[in-house]
Prior knowledge:
Distance between the termini: 37 Å
Strand order of the largest sheet: 7-6-16-15-12-13
Helix content: 25-40%
Shape: elongated
Order of helices and strands: HHEEEHHEEHEEEEEEEEEEE
Number of strands: 16
Number of helices: 5
Structural class: alpha+beta
Amino acid sequence: MNILDRFEQSFERLMEGSIGRLFRSPVQPAEIGRKLERAMLGHQVVSVDATLVPNDYRVTMHPQDMVLFVDYVTALSRQMEAWLAEVAAERGFTLVDRTRVQIAADDRVPRRSIRVAAAIADRPDFGEPEQEAIQRTEVYRVIRETTGVPPVRIRFVGGPQKGEEVIIRKPVTTVGRSLDNDVVLDSGEVSRHHARFEYLDAQLRLVDLGSTNGTRVNGKAIRSHPVGVGDEVAFGTLKAQMLPFEPNGR
């Protein structure tokens, strides 16, 4: 298996293992990998005893493409950084500093396309916390500007999805066992079309869709109820905590 195949398979496992896997991105992982590698090879600087290649990359795509997979952006950036470092090592290239990849939205990029900018940058004071904050700020901006919805994180605290998160970033987000839902929950406790989150008059509500095992907010069975940060929601016995999504950190 070549190095690009390994990158693509790791990305696919990330997508398939996420609770938000149906927020599909039209941008394929192999396309991202090929353009990153091309950017690295196209910006080589040959010196007497080394071949320097870029370590700083910026991947841009249309906002409507990026908003479809914001759940994966941070993890994908880390995977791309590790993959680029592996490419450099395999080819005997030299990096002046750790690899950094930021993913951003730009409405000048056509739909279903990506652009990559690459540079050689020595930034010893720029570490992972700063990079994380920049990436989260960009994700927050894209969601607000593209959908008009303030994003909220939901972290599942039990069941098969324990520890997984999904970002509510649409005016209406459906939840259920059926594959045509926005958030698919693989549990017999969950109905095929169990519930939906909806923004109405700047208020996020959780609405039960006639589910067999019910929907609860803070332990109370509901049909339609306002929800917000700090609330516990449950689909049958599958519980989740609602958490803030702040642009400058968790």
